[in-house]
């Protein structure tokens, strides 16, 4: 059991290693990574966004066909994402097949007309990437606004979250961890 991160080529290399380390510490699990091997389809020209459900569908095919391991997979992309019925999503997870995606397009200060800052962006990416990975491991949304599993609607709500799980969510993650070992 572990985490596998697929970095899309439009995500800057400078932030990757520190983001991986932080996610590994929060989840207390090993994190491996590689360049994203999957073409990200589902581009909608009128929206200038990619359909996150479509990408996870492709991932599901890739995963079941070629990856026989028990890793939870997270794709990190710079492409802005949407799903039907929503203007945008920061990320999306498909727990049954252990695949998820997160976009850093809206995690940059410059998206909101502010000065970019690599640390801000890395922090947000770690929170939202860990959030999607926890969905893969069976965790649901949390009402604690400081917990990683809180579902933020805005950047400010995202920034209010800490890079930790609340006690309740930590316990749920432990149940996942230990039930997996007992299998
Ligand atoms: Zn969520
Ligand atoms: Zn929580």
UniProtKB/TrEMBL annotation:
Could you name the domain of life of the organism this protein comes from? Archaea
Gene3D superfamilies per record: Collagenase (Catalytic Domain) (3.40.390.10)
Q: Which residues form a coiled coil?
A: none
Pfam families of this UniProt entry? Peptidase_M54 (PF07998)
Q: Which UniProt keywords apply?
A: Hydrolase, Metal-binding, Metalloprotease, Protease, Zinc
Q: Which cofactor does it need?
A: Zn(2+)
Q: Name one GO molecular function term.
A: metallopeptidase activity
Q: Give GO terms for biological process.
A: proteolysis
Please report the name of this protein according to its UniProt entry: Peptidase zinc-dependent
Source organism phylogeny: Archaea, Methanobacteriati, Methanobacteriota, Stenosarchaea group, Methanomicrobia
């Amino acid at each position: 059991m572990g985490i596998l991160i697929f970095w899309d080529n439009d995500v800057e290399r400078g932030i990757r290693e520190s983001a991986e380390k932080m996610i590994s510490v929060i989840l207390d699990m090993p994190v491996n990574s590689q360049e994203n091997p999957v073409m990200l389809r589902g581009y909608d020209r009128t929206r200038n966004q990619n359909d996150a459900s479509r990408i996870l569908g492709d991932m599901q095919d890739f995963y079941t066909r070629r990856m026989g391991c028990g890793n939870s997979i997270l794709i990190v992309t710079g492409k802005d994402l949407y799903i039907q019925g929503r203007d945008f999503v920061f990320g999306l997870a498909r727990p049954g097949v252990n695949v998820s995606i997160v976009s850093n397009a809206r995690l940059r200060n410059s998206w909101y007309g502010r000065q970019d800052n690599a640390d801000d962006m890395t922090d947000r990416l770690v929170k939202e990437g860990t959030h999607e990975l926890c969905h893969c491991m069976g965790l649901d949304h949390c009402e604690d606004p400081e917990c990683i599993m809180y579902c933020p609607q805005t950047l400010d709500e995202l920034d209010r979250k800490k890079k930790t799980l609340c006690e309740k969510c930590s316990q749920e993650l432990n149940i996942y961890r230990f039930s997996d070992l007992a299998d």
